[in-house]
Design a protein that fits this description.
The chain is an all-alpha fold. Helix content is 75%, strand content 0%. The termini are far apart.
Length: 230
């Protein structure tokens, strides 16, 4: 004779997981379409950022300062790396504590990509190494703000059952961005500002479907807490 074991009901006192909570508040469930848009958006951000870093920035520096190309490129790259190092944690924290009515992540993703694209386009017409360095620093800050906000979406929107698989796809986005950027430069050529324009435009086009369809629930100041320097 089998014995019936009573299963205790779920403990309602346990905190609701973030993906379930946000799905309930926004009415947006995470499925295949959401994941595809999310991964494609990350590819777009990396495409707009990595293409200059790996290809066109060196070409532009060589056009402006052919004699001192190596030293000038090292200077520009160092300025950009320093800007990225500072920007990622700062904008990640700001995004975590955002109470914007437009959403917590969306303004940082869209704003970062837009400003980054403008900065990259400025590099394409900059007449001096100093202006190229400034443009690259602004681009690094902006795109890293977008990256920080976009990556934060994984733990707060993607359920545990899908998180490992989505993380795997996310790990491929940088490589896809590199390959796509190199192939795109081969198509459009390296003459003029076009080598900066087209990767930026394509990156923005890939980001927009996700940003425009992402539903977010604005948070209150009490929910996010104060921003502290630690």
């Amino acid at each position: 004779m089998s014995e019936t074991v009573a299963v205790p009901p779920p403990d309602s006192r346990l905190p609701e997981p973030a993906p379930e909570r946000l799905a309930r508040l926004t009415g947006q469930r995470v499925g295949v379409v959401f994941v595809v848009r999310y991964v494609v958006a990350l590819i777009g951000i990396w495409l707009a950022l990595i293409t200059p870093a790996s290809v066109t920035l060196a070409l532009r520096v060589g056009q402006i300062d052919p004699a001192g190309k190596a030293g000038s490129l090292a200077l520009v790259a160092s300025v950009g790396a320093a800007a990225a190092l500072v920007a990622n944690p700062i904008f990640g924290a700001l995004s975590d504590r955002s109470t914007s009515r437009f959403g917590q992540r969306r303004p940082f993703i869209l704003g970062g990509v837009l400003i980054g694209c403008v900065a990259v386009l400025g590099i394409g017409i900059a007449p001096s190494i100093g202006l190229v360095a400034v443009g690259w620093a602004v681009a690094q800050v902006s795109f890293n703000a977008a990256v920080a906000a976009a990556i934060a979406i994984l733990p707060e929107r993607v359920p545990d059952a899908l998180r490992g698989r989505v993380s795997g796809f996310m790990g491929m986005t940088g490589q896809v961005g590199v390959v796509g950027g190199v192939y795109l430069i081969q198509l459009v050529g390296t003459g003029g500002a076009g080598m900066f324009v087209w990767p930026a435009v394509l990156g923005l086009v890939l980001v927009l479907p996700f940003v425009l369809t992402l539903r977010e629930s604005p948070r209150t100041r009490a929910e996010v807490g104060p921003l502290r320097a630690e």
